[in-house]
Each structure stands twice: as structure tokens, then as C-alpha cells.
Description:
Blueprint: H1 19-23, H2 29-44, H3 55-73, E1 77-87, E2 107-114, E3 118-128
Antiparallel strand pairs: 1-3, 2-3
Amino acid sequence: VVDSAPIDPEAGRGAMPDNDDVTSFPKLKEEVNLALPQCIERVLGKVAEYHAKHVDEWSESIGQEVLKKLQEISGNFKYIVCTTILEKKGGGFHTSSAVFWDSETDAAVSYRWENKAMVCVVQTYGVGI
């Protein structure tokens, strides 16, 4: 006997999360905060000294690592990733952002990483589609 019912593409996947869980970046902030240091470590983890000539490459690599991980976590957002790498020289650094968005769906996560030679700040923004 052949079953002629249409194939359900969601069958076998278990219960799908509520729409709120999928489309609310604030609910993913904890997972994103755990992922950011891993992405930074993959690029800067073995770098012992700051070299200005490598900063562009490091920044690009970290940005791409973070974007890849964010898309793995959820493809339901547009993402913005800002990476800042500074040599540790005792100087101050301050950054801030202003946003106009829907706080139910959109959010930002910042992470500061450092070693003896440098500081890396990664700011991520998830904006609902």
C-alpha cells in the first residue's frame, strides 16, 4: 500500500521552537556571548605580540568567524559585526553605539578579549528580518 499523503518537510525534526524563539535575537544573547571568545581565540589565541601590519587581516578573520557562527546559531537575522583591535599601551579606549530598533527582535552583544599584547572588542548586532 502506497501512502499518497504529501510529504511533511518538518517531519522527524521534533517540535519546532516557537516563532518568538526563532525571531528574537535577545533570546540568543547568552549563546552569542559564549561563541564570541571562541571565534576570537581561533584567530588571536596564539598571537603573542601586536603587529600593526597584521591587524587588518586579524580583524577580517575575526569578523568572518563571528558571522559564520552567528549564521549557524540562527539564519533569521541580518548581522553587523564590528571588530576593534588595540595594542596594549596603557591608553584609554571607549566605544558606544546608538540604535533605533525593535527591542523585541533586535539586540547587540559586545565582548572584550585581551592578552598581554592587545585588546580585542567585538560588537555584534542582530536585526530581525
